Amino acid sequence: MLLHGSEEVTPVMLQILQRLYHPKHIIIAHELIKLISILLSLGDGASAAATFAQAEEIFSLYYGSHVEKTLTYMGALKKAVSDA
Q: Quick one: DSSP state of residue 43?
């Protein structure tokens, strides 16, 4: 299964990126979005929700109240996370 290694690789990638960038850097938020997708695919709604909150917080630092206007997928992702 393709996702089998993903749930292990993505957190490692986040650790590497957090060493290269500030923990609130926008690239971290984009990686968190990838992790949310994996978590939802694995049926881990609680972790997806917590990860979404982290990503949303970081994106808000960069885009303010315009997060959903700038990143149009955020509304649909938020709904998917809340439905999980």
A: T
